[in-house]
Amino acid sequence: MPVVVEKSSHIGGISRTVNYKGNRIDIGGHRFFSKSDRVMDWWLEILPLEAGAAVRESISYQGKTRAVEARETGPDPEKVDLVMLVRRRLSRIYYLRRFFSYPLQLSFETIRNLGLWRTVRIGASYARAALFPIRPERSLEDFLINRFGRELYRTFFQAYTEKVWGVPCSEISAEWGAQRIKGLSVTKALLHMLKSLHRSATGGIAQKETETSLIEKFLYPKLGPGQLWEEVARRVVSMGGDIRLNHEVVRLEWDGRSRIEAVVTRSAEGDTQQFPAGLVFSTMPVRDLVAALDPPAPETAREIATGLAYRDFLTVGLLCRRLKVEGPGPGERLRDNWIYIQEPEVLVGRLQIFNNWSPWMVADPSTVWIGLEYFCNEGDSLWSRSDGELIELAKKEMDQIGIVDPADVLDATVVRMEKAYPAYFGSYNRFPELRSFLDGIENLVLIGRNGMHRYNNQDHSMLAAMTAVDQIIEGRIDRNVLWGINTEQEYHEEKS
Q1: Are 394 and 412 in contact (CB under 8 A)?
Q2: Residue 136 preceded by cis peptide, ω within 30
Q3: Dihedral sign (CA 338, 341, 347, 349)
Q4: Are strands 272-276 and 280-282 parallel, antiparallel or unpaired?
Q5: Which residues neighbour 61 within 8 Å (Cβ) at sequence distance 6 or greater?
Q6: How far apart are CA 23 and CA 84, in angstroms?
């Protein structure tokens, strides 16, 4: 019988949905989009498209092609919300108190917002980067300058990225860019603009040739991303699985060589329990995993694990009567899913408008429910502020940059998320040594963003887990295949 041990009281980790008085928060924002047909197929198996959705799509998987379309969820009133919506993506940058398309478009609006002289400098800088790229790429700064030019990097990438990580881009490994941005560039963005004119007529959600940062439509659970994992958890329990919420792994007993023999957990009430270990999938932070090994891991492994860095995250939810900024038409609301706040004088890094992810994320549709995202380190001055202080900071900053009048805020809450982002600095340059040690424990499989200390999207983490299960069924575990997922432009199971 499988046993799932979850430290928190929620299913889904960073993909959970927080319900505050009927207003739901998606921590970090989760677009359900993947180049992997297998992942897309699985999502739609758990949560079918909502009935009446004007979407029909041919999805191929393992040589089979079938139509994916909306289907009735049945007469059961408890299942009426167990559906996926098809949402149109809109993300923009807020800079100089103006909105810029993301990715940037070479349009009259962009030139007008930037000014002709700044636009010329950006063009010249991009041409120089294309002709004389920095080699080798040692840092994220090098990576971004090579793809966008120094001027565009300084205008639209540097301030936001350094808000996220809290360190200069010159101190972050270029691997982060390869992990998150991959093939996106000015050239790709321009080509995408031309292709999208044709694709918009089809209404399709399968965008396999599209860079992840450029997708125009995505799937989204009606009640937020946590809804999918809550349904999965229900199915696991119904099939005999055991899910232990509020249980922390405090010790991993191993033979000191190549096998974990038992997992010891502690409940919120302080009770401990030992589980014999057949096979252990670990999504816990690598730093905590190594610290839990008993007897202790070798000194080198402990040293590297201790030096791994993480970036923490908090969301301030503001329920508002209205926003001070409007949508494309007079009196219209903004249509953005999220907005990158590039203004350097405020701490907020990104803003989500939950109404636009799903109308059912908001209890009262006449209100606007937004989430302000702040990046910090656990225990620092921002993290340590009280909820009341953080709410006041959020209202002040929204007023300062002209998005929300504090008098229009009806209610507010704060959600903290530890270790949201595994960092590509600290001792990360020595991570291959630590990986080699952990891969040598034959019944331990690392999966998930923190489990692999890799800034994966949710579909990459899922594909790694699916691939691991395939290998176990086949009687072998090839960890190089698991680590290879999301290292190249196409996913490995599509190549094969």
Answers
A1: yes
A2: yes
A3: positive
A4: unpaired
A5: 37, 38, 41
A6: 18
Strand, helix or coil for residue 462: helix
Tens-place pLDDT, residues 211-225: 444 467 899 999 999
**Please, which residues have CB within 8 angstroms of residue 461's CB and are 6 or more apart in sequence?**
447, 448, 449, 452
Among 421, 396, 422, smallest CA distance to 409 is for 396
Cα 340 to Cα 362: distance, rounded to the nearest angstrom: 21
pLDDT (0 to 100) of residue 182: 54
Tens of pLDDT, residues 149-205: 999 999 888 888 899 999 999 998 888 777 666 545 555 544 444 444 444 444 454
Q: How far apart are CA 14 and CA 29, in angstroms?
A: 9
Contacting residues for 296 by C-beta, under 8 A, at least 6 apart? 302
Q: Which of 327, 334, 317 is nearest to 395 (CA)?
A: 317
What six digits make up the tokens of 47?
Answer: 């949560």
pLDDT digits (tens, 9 = 90+) for 61-108: 333 444 555 555 454 556 678 999 999 999 999 999 999 988 777 778
**How many Å is the Cα radius of gyration of the chain?**
23
Distance (Å, whole) CA 103 – CA 91? 8
Q: What is the dihedral of CA 342, 343, 349, 350, to 10 degrees?
A: -70
